[in-house]
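Folded chain entry —
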Amino acid sequence: MSSRRVQILVALVLTALWGAAIYVAHANGHLRFLDRLEATLTDLRTLARGAQPPPDLVTIVAIDDTVVKRGGRYPLPRADLARVVDAVAQFKPKVIAVDLLLVDPGARLGDAMLARSLAAGPTVLAAAAIFPTTSDTVARSSEGPLAALPQAERFLLPLPAFADHAEVGIVNVATGQSGSPLSVPMLFRTGDKVELSFPLRVASRALGQPLTIAPDHLMLGDRTVSTDTDFSLPITYYGPRRTIRTLSAQNVFDGTLDRGTIENRIVVIGASVSGGGDFFPTPFDALMPGVEVVSTAITHLVAGDGIVRDRKVHVADAFAAILLPMVLVGLLAWRRSAIGLIAAVVVVMAWAALNLFAFTHGIWLNAATTLAAAVPPVAIFTGVQLWAGSRRTQYLTAKSRSLAQFQALAVQEWLARDPDFLSEPVRQNAAIVFIDLSGFTALSERLDPDTLRELLKAFHALVDKTAVSSGGMITGFLGDGAMILFGLPRPTPDDAARAVKCSLELHRVVKDWMASLPAPYRDQLGFKIGAHFGPIVASRLGGSHQHITATGDNVNVANRLMEVAAQHDARLAFSDTLLDAADFHGDPHGILTGPLQTKVRGRASAVTVWFWHEEQQPGQTATEADAAGCELETRYRASGGGERSRTSPLAPSSKSIP
């Protein structure tokens, strides 16, 4: 298995362990900051879902500011509360739920009137649980399904005079870190007893069904009430305050209470007066009266339209906390490019859409835990990938710089576009230039290695600079020489012309360089250049380490032209084929002499050769230059030179290139 695969496997395992650890820690009551995040995300999902009409099951009779202004004080006198209960009872509601704590005695007559009113109809009274801290605590000191119930120090129960005529339920709600009620506990316990919640008592009485406590849910008759693992009922709001039908208790005192809003419905009597009663922030409202929160829970229980957050949903949360970060890390590892990033973003968007879809259809999948499980490993893995990518980029840049020392820039770019370039040999026309130092071998026997290396390095630098500036490609430095190709990575019409230009420039710069050397070196060294044009076979040679080169008869001819130049006291020899292909019209600083018909080693047929010299050496007169030209002409004829096709106005045996 490759090291990269091992690294990816390790990353996936660590990601899975991280996701599992986050889920377990949060499920056990740690990482409380995730509750605040979940509350915020829940509000956003609720707003995205929008307001919904509630089932027409509950009517709230509110003791509001209008009632307080009429009576002049709050809490409402017991006698007035009795009038409200009597007025509601006469319209035959299913149940009257009084969301007021009747724990302190009032006026004797008023208490007696209220007791009689409560006895007249089916009623449920609110009680409160007192906890050690401001928030509900969960104690797991006992075994069984009730171990996770909120454990109170004690209960504040209604006065016996009232409780004897009604059922009693605990009215506390559980708020999240944001202060918004997210659930209502259905069961509470102290050290010796368990009490039902106020909404559960009301729903049980309204439905006329007995309550059964199962290990992970509740049953109202044969109806399953889906609760969280601690027997709390998750709630989701229908809309802003007064979305559930709300009437002012002032209608009772005015005699305008409508039977149609009361009959056969659950009526909840509670306070919504400013400065009195409980108010909570919700997604739709900054201040929603507690009586509406309780009424929302009652509606969920009776209508069965609450949001589901049971054991199965928690299992799904656990899988999401483990699988989502693994998928994201896997995608980023699979494609370390924009494609992998886009795929990861698509997966996140799909997960968010699925989470929202589930929420709007009554399933509350935890979003905060999954994000906490996914974001850190993805961020860390992405950072590592970027760091590794930066290191790899630096490596490839260094490698490219190293490659540039062995391959021409044009060939590098071509190979980047077409990695299969010259994987199969290609026959084409090209211009070939060879240059070689003469006398270098004998000189190297007397020089120390460092001096020899610096001398050769300077020579190679001159050749490289000249070849690159002319658009040639050095296929290799052959010790004290070099081979330059014009026609790769693809042939162009001016390959021959650029080869001629390169040859002339090489002659000039190498001659000047040699003139700058110390006398012992200068006197020992010389150079020769051969240039030819014709068909070659371009290919890759080598095994695991390949290089690009050219082979064929014309490559051999170009190489042998250096020998021809040396034999005729010249430094630069052109083939007639190259000059014709270049349509060469001369150079103002040189003399072209020839042609010479000669044979070269390894080739049966003769080659027509032209030699290039400087027009006039320093200190040499024009007469001396003409004499030199005549001497060369005599040598050409003695060696079998043919008639000249390129005539010279300066000397009968040479041509001046104007």
User: Anything to note?
Assistant: Confidence is low (pLDDT under 50) at residues 134-142, 618-658.
